[in-house]
Amino acid sequence: MSHKIKSPYCFVDTLESFLGESGATVDIIASALGDYIRFNYQDYVGSYTDACHVRDILESSYDLNLPPLDAIQWVQYVNHNANYLGES
After folding, report:
1. Residues 27, 28, 33: CA angle, nearest 5 degrees
2. pLDDT (tens digit, 9 = 90+) per residue, 46-84?
3. What pTM does this model have?
4. Distance CA 74, CA 60 (A)
């Protein structure tokens, strides 16, 4: 299984699984992802590193206090969400 997310929808859903309880809604995450892709479109692959960058945007631009992302949990969520959403 890949540890990268093909679909932006699945990427947003996976980040919401991590950060939703801290106030990061799907709409806010999608907006932050759009900001990230706008400036880093050549580098975006749906990876853990991309998720960390989007998390940083959420904290700095949306004034959210978010927990750090754990790389091992990220892989587990990616695999689970990709299977659940039929994108594996």
Report:
1. 100
2. 899 999 999 999 999 999 999 999 999 988 888 887 777
3. 0.86
4. 21
